[in-house]
Amino acid sequence: MQTDARTSEVTIHVDLAKIEANARALTRHLPDVAFVGVTKVTCGSPAVARALLAGGVTAIGDSRLANLRRLKDDGVPAPLWLLRSPTPTLAAETVRVADVSLNSELETVRALGAAAVVGGRAQRVVVMVDLGDLREGVLPQELPGFLDAAERISGISVEGIGTNLTCYGAIVPTAANLGRLVELGEAAERQLGRRLLVSGGNSSTLWRALKGGGIPERIDNLRVGESIVLGVDTVTRAPIDGLHLDAFVVEAPVIECRVKPSLPSGEAAQDAYGNRPTFADRGERRRAICAIGRQDIVPEGLRPLDPRVEVLGASSDHMILDVEAVDPPPGVGDRIAFIPNYASVLQAFTSAYVVKDFTPLA
Ligand SMILES: *Cc1c(COP(=O)(O)O)cnc(C)c1O
Fold first, then answer.
1. Are residues 313 and 273 in the same domain?
2. Which residue among 18, 40, 260, 356 is the active-site one?
3. Is residue 20 situated within a structural domain?
4. Domain check: are 45 and 183 in the same one?
5. What's the Rg (C-alpha) of the chain?
6. Which ligand 1 atom is nearest residue 83's CA?
7. CB contact at 8 A, 175 and 132
């Protein structure tokens, strides 16, 4: 029986050596592509950033200035990329903490240029192009005009173009849309008269590069988070050969373990989240309740390490497990371990109630 009070808290364990090994395997596979390692799912953890760099990524990206600020203050030795466009009023802070930012509005680029002139350091800008996923980016036909205007703004250095896929519209990278990106990149190079960077997307483009027919050679940059830290492809959520799938493990303590009917009794209305749940009658079953809920994780995104344990559901602070097959059954205070998906890792790092432990689970 463990006595440390911390064992009664929900904990996310991070195995930095596995994150480093995953990064190394992927960067070695694509030696001609520069990887921006993305830390946003861990709220800009400096320890995770260092593991990514040790594994061969050459820059660190995050969507939030607060996270980049944390990385910079911690002395993480790499160029920092701001992946989500700032607003014009955040231009000064952006220029202070980000070496590179992704942009799709000239008003913001003008504000960045003005702040960069004051700060005495050029802001490197990657112009985002929307190739159909309908999140950020100018439309392809708008790109030449945008580049022309951005190029004239003092304090701004146009580094290249980029795209983002499989985020909002669930559009996957294909020979067609990546081919279009390369065409646009080559046209931009002719327009500006110099070599530019072509940033071909996120984990979904990486997967195509590894498995799905390859990516054009001219793509020389990818911004990768999920596939490195979770070891999965983001199009199919299939494991990537040779990568660790358990760099993160979530643990939560059992607070009740009793045999109960599997059907609720009484008059049914809505659950705590406004849903009308349905239940299958499996007779009386042994169920455990863990002290974890939606305020800590996304319950649907937790896979119990012990395959005999089944997640039945959760409210904001209780999670119900079927443990009928576990013999002997878990006792009160025992900890149940789960592999979290991306949404659950994000929620665990964002939650003030979850202990972040950077020592691997023994
Ligand atoms: C989050 C993000 C990424 C990384 O996405 P993954 O799917 O985690 O690899 C890359 N680029 C941008 C612009 C992002 O917002």
1. yes
2. 40
3. no
4. yes
5. 23
6. 13
7. no
Q: Is residue 205 in some structural domain?
A: yes
Average pLDDT over residues 152-158: 98
What is the position in ligand 1's atom list of the atom closest to the CA of 204? 7
Q: Tell me whether residue 18 is one of the annotated catalytic residues.
A: no
Residue 223 shares a structural domain with residue 190: yes
In a domain, 23, yes or no: no
- Comparing CA positions, the residue from 75, 67, 101 lying closest to residue 87 is 101
- Whether the predicted pLDDT of 221 surpasses 80: yes
The reply to whether 348 falls in a domain is yes
Residue that terminates a domain, selected from 203, 230, 257: 230
Mutate to test the pocket of ligand 1, among 68, 172, 202 (most ligand atoms within 8 A of CB): 202
Whole-model pTM over 0.85: yes
**Cβ–ligand 1 contact at 201 (below 6 Å):** no
CATH number, domain with residue 58 = 3.20.20.10
Residue-wise pLDDT for 85-109, tens only, equals: 999 999 999 999 999 999 999 999 9
Domain, as residue range, for 39: 32-230
Q: Both tokens of residue 75?
A: 């002395």
What digits encode the pLDDT tens for the residues 8-65? Answer: 899 999 999 999 999 999 999 999 999 999 999 999 999 999 999 999 999 999 999 9
Percentage of the residues of the chain whose pLDDT score is greater than 90: 89
User: Would you say the CB of residue 223 lies under 6 angstroms from ligand 1?
Assistant: yes
**pLDDT score of 77 more than 80:** yes
Percent of the chain with pLDDT over 70: 99
Domain end among 230, 257, 284 = 230
CATH of the domain at 353: 2.40.37
